[in-house]
Design goal:
9 strands, about 200 residues, single chain, about 35% strand, about 40% helix
């Protein structure tokens, strides 16, 4: 990543500035989907030291980038998480279609933006997946996150995901987890964000 990225999505201009982790839609700064999730979940890691968070962030980025390079270019790595990703891929028979997919979520006008980890196919099912490297998998958080991504992906590209999956990869952990689709729950969170914003 060169610090700045640009996409055209469904008639909108989406920019991303890495230094500030800032999304800009049609010239207007919007929050990320992760920031919208903070309305419900707050700062999940408030009690964790900045050094620990920094190490976790760097390791998470390393894992995401290794998986992305493998999916896009077939580049191998010694990371356990990549080995376990390949194990899950073989075990569950999924094909990765896209990595780091930019999306915009709107209600009359753009509200937030983000990038989902991957889209995949299992048989005829189109799936949105998210990789987590946390020590424990927070399924509630992941359910909100993936349902928001599902709505945003549909709005951005015109395709509904048939299923949502969490890929929990950390050291020797390798889990492929079903996440329930619940569009109403996701919209309630968006509405709460809009109410708080207007107050």
């Amino acid at each position: 990543m060169n610090g700045y990225e640009y996409w055209q999505i469904d008639g909108h201009d989406l920019e991303y500035i890495d230094a500030d982790h800032q999304y800009i839609v049609d010239g207007i700064c919007v929050p990320s989907i992760t920031q919208i999730l903070k309305i419900k979940f707050g700062n999940k890691y408030a009690g964790v030291s900045s050094a620990t968070l920094q190490r976790a962030s760097e390791k998470g980025t390393e894992v995401h980038e290794a998986i992305e390079r493998y999916c896009r270019e077939g580049v191998e790595s010694d990371l356990k998480e990549l080995r376990n990703f390949k194990f899950l891929q073989k075990q569950y028979g999924f094909t990765v279609l896209q990595n780091e997919v930019p999306v915009i979520l709107s209600a009359d006008e753009p509200i937030c933006a983000g990038r989902l980890d991957m889209t995949m196919m299992i048989g005829d099912s189109f799936i949105i997946g998210d990789i987590k490297r946390t020590s424990t998998l927070d399924k509630e958080y992941l359910a909100y996150q993936l349902n928001l991504y599902r709505i945003a992906y549909r709005q951005s590209y015109g395709i509904w995901a048939d299923a949502l999956k969490g890929l929990h990869l950390r050291d020797d952990v390798r889990k492929f987890v079903d996440i329930p689709i619940n569009e109403g729950m996701a919209w309630e969170l968006v509405e709460k964000y809009l109410e708080d914003k207007d107050e």
